[in-house]
Design brief:
By secondary structure, this protein is of the alpha+beta class. Helix content is 44%, strand content 11%. A hairpin with a 6-residue loop joins β13 and β14. α8 crosses α10. It starts with 16 loop residues before the first helix and ends in a 14-residue tail after the last helix.
Length: 728
């Protein structure tokens, strides 16, 4: 039985030394001197703030994209023991000793290093020679811009890594399709394609471009499978379901999981949660949750409430009134009702409190048992401090003359009766008998007499003059003008009124609530709201010193100064390898011209290259030229501040195209031995120039050694480059 022990156990493994060498060189080029400079470099000032918030578990919203990339950067900080205590307020600020610089920059550097072997593997899977694959990897290795971007706490290198991993995984899956469908390795690479696509989208929405490209390629390949008579209907259905699972369902599930982890980690209130709804804010620890804890859930007649406008733009604000009245005449000569002002006030204040009153009764307290207000009920809103009723009438609003003025009614004993009845309409109701609920219900107040809707002025951001204390305008807007979120309000703070006397009620309005209820939102509700905010929230796009247009990127007419040493001439710039960028552009042009030539000739039944070579040429172009196009052309449609680093994913695909074109020219256009030898010599000379330019610009890629003024001027190969030179 133990006879098998007579012979030793032998494990045989094949090691691709090219691949191993590329991994080592990639790690050296990206990890060498990673902690230098020990100062904030360019957008580290931006991403570092989010890392600190993760460390402190404080909620934030970043309108630049999903949270997965931020979480990876935070993982580096967590592994390095970062406590989040650093003030990310300016580029060039020296890091304090508690900031693990090497750890924070590690994951982007590793991702950048692994892009080198991925480039090699992609060309191998595209059925090109190992020599061409090695050339592609070395071009990525020696590309100064990719090195610079991967050595700091930035997201582009991570994005490019997942993009290349998705492409490689799909190519491996497709090549296995021919002889081992539904095998373990087939499933592995198919599933990894979906995972990598999801991760790419989770890092930055730019990853969506490559994801769409791979879905299109997968759809085209499946279309060809449908025409294969050797495959049964059941087999085709299995292939379709497998692709749907791996390329759609799993990526969507993973994308949701990124937000689930994000929201689980960030459970504390912070400065960014003010743009979220009251319900979302109340689900966070501290902040609004501390204020609203213990509030009654159902709004009843006699309830004391504050009403927050759901839109939250340009700032969040609450329905507010004070004793001051509208001026008898405005600056433009129009008259007003001279009644008490009603505004939307962007701060919490005792004058934000209102009492929900039953029009048929005089009492301003909650009965026992409470009588809840439901959808469609008629109410009066009484200002808590001044006891005047919310009113609107056919008088033009101060800043929006086509809308009605909203006021708190003062009886001047003239022919202007009170019009203070409002119908409660719950916008997000499940039935017409829904109860008006604290925080959860989004309501409109429709004026019974005029059918106008209470609205934070449609003239978004309109501030009243000095007589209105620069507060925001509130108007009555006709429903016929359409629905808008500025017409929707929710109860944020709420208590059951118990004091009928005004003096006692004023004391009550300053008191905390007592009753306990839970207002936890479901994950999907929080995800939907956060996703919508990310997609619609727009920061003020200002012109940046180093911003550029998409046209500037192709010829690298721009650069970005990332860091400057405070005393010496040492500096770091985002600058590409000029030879590589030029070669990539030429390769793309040659590819498109040759493809057009081949297509015209094939239309005339003239076949210049074998069919197998043609299919290889087309498939390589679909990946490389397609990858370049989908990652570059959309920027011409974007209304945002653009920087050179936005071009790096597109550039990576363009770099992969260079050795593909070179091998094609060598194999099919250099027909004689002499031409092949001359072409090979030119390639060696060209590649030597790539290495020489890499070495020339490495001082501004790595930030050392420090260069003299003369040396810095020599690096300004283009007048449009902004190389920083200190005045002597």
């Amino acid at each position: 039985m133990l006879g098998f022990l007579k012979n030793p156990v032998v494990i045989t493994a094949e090691i691709n030394m090219n691949l191993m060498a590329l991994i080592v060189m990639g790690l050296i080029s990206r990890l060498w001197g990673l902690s230098y400079p020990r100062a904030v470099v360019f957008d580290e000032v931006y991403y570092g703030q989010f890392v600190s918030l993760y460390m402190k578990r404080i909620f934030f919203v970043d309108d630049s994209g999903p949270p997965f990339g931020h979480m990876l950067l935070a993982l580096g900080g967590y592994l390095g023991g970062f406590d989040g205590n650093f003030l990310w307020n300016r580029i060039g600020a020296e890091y304090s000793m508690n900031v693990p610089v090497w750890s924070l920059r590690l994951l982007p550097a590793l991702a950048g290093a692994l892009c080198v072997p991925l480039a090699y593997q992609i060309l191998v899977e595209l059925q090109f020679s190992h020599c061409a694959a090695l050339g592609a990897a070395l071009l990525v290795l020696l590309e100064n811009s990719l090195i610079t971007q991967s050595r700091f706490m930035l997201l582009e290198s991570i994005l490019i890594f997942f993009i290349l991993l998705a492409v490689l995984s799909y190519l491996k899956f497709y090549n296995l399709q021919r002889h081992s469908s539904f095998s373990g390795s087939w499933w592995f690479w198919l599933l990894l394609t979906g995972v990598a696509c999801s991760c790419a989208v989770g890092v930055k929405y730019m990853g969506l471009f490559t994801y769409m490209l791979l879905l299109a390629v997968a759809g085209l390949h499946f279309w060809h499978m449908i025409g294969d008579q050797n495959l049964s209907n059941v087999s085709l259905m299995c292939h379709f379901l497998a692709r749907g699972l791996a390329l759609i369902i799993i990526p969507v599930a993973m994308y949701l999981s990124f937000f689930y982890v994000h929201l689980t980690l960030l459970y504390r209130s912070g400065p960014h949660d003010q743009i979220m709804t009251s319900a979302f804010q109340a689900s966070l620890e501290g902040g609004l949750a501390r204020i609203t804890q213990g509030q009654p859930l159902e709004v009843a007649y006699g309830s004391q409430i504050t009403l927050r406008n759901v839109l939250g733009k340009p700032v969040q604000c609450w329905l507010h009134s004070h004793k001051n009245t509208y001026p008898i005449r405005y600056e433009n000569g129009r008259g007003s009702s001279h009644q008490q002002q009603v505004t939307c006030y962007p701060f919490k204040d005792v004058n934000n409190w209102w009492i929900v009153k039953d029009p048929g009764m005089q009492q301003l307290v909650v009965s026992n048992p409470p009588r809840p207000v439901r959808h469609g009920h008629i109410v009066q809103l009484v200002h808590g401090i001044t006891t005047r009723y919310l009113n609107t009438h056919d008088v033009a609003a101060p800043l929006s003359p086509h809308s009605q003025e909203v006021s708190c009614y003062i009886d001047y004993n003239i022919s202007m009766p009170a019009q203070n009845l409002w119908r409660v309409e719950i916008v997000n109701r499940e039935s017409d008998t829904d109860v008006w609920k604290t925080i959860l219900s989004e309501v409109r107040f429709v004026h019974v007499n005029t059918s106008a809707v209470l609205k934070a002025s449609g003239f978004i951001g309109a501030s009243l003059p000095e007589w209105g204390y620069r507060q925001l305008e509130v108007v009555g807007e006709k429903l016929s003008k359409g629905y808008h979120q500025s017409m929707v309000w929710n109860v944020e703070e709420h208590r059951y009124g118990k004091s009928q006397e005004q003096k006692e009620r004023e004391v009550e309005l300053h008191s905390p609530t007592q009753m306990d209820i839970s207002k936890n939102l479901s994950f999907m509700a929080k995800f939907t709201e956060l996703q919508w905010k990310i997609l619609t929230l727009k920061n003020e796009d200002t012109e940046h010193k180093y911003s550029s247009s998409a046209l500037d990127w192709i010829t690298m007419d721009t650069n970005i100064a990332y860091w400057l040493h405070p005393t010496s001439g040492a500096q770091i710039h985002l600058l590409g390898n000029v030879v590589t960028w030029t070669s990539a552009n030429v390769a793309a042009l040659v590819y498109m011209c040759l493809s057009l030539w081949y297509l015209i000739r094939r239309r005339r039944k003239i076949y210049d290259i074998p069919e197998e070579a043609w299919q290889l040429w087309v498939s390589a172009g679909g990946i490389c030229v397609g990858g370049w196009a989908v990652n570059y052309l959309p920027f011409f449609l974007m209304e945002k501040t653009l920087f050179l680093y936005h071009y790096l994913p597109a550039l990576t695909f363009q770099i992969l195209l260079v050795p593909i074109v070179l091998q094609h020219l060598s194999d099919h256009l250099c027909r004689s031995l002499l031409l092949k030898s001359m072409f090979s010599a030119l390639i060696v000379a060209w590649f030597s120039s790539v290495y020489l330019v890499y070495c020339t610009f490495s001082p501004v890629t790595y930030g050392e050694p420090s260069l003299s003024v003369t040396e810095l001027k020599d690096l300004r190969w283009k007048d449009s480059w902004n190389i920083l030179i200190r005045k002597q």
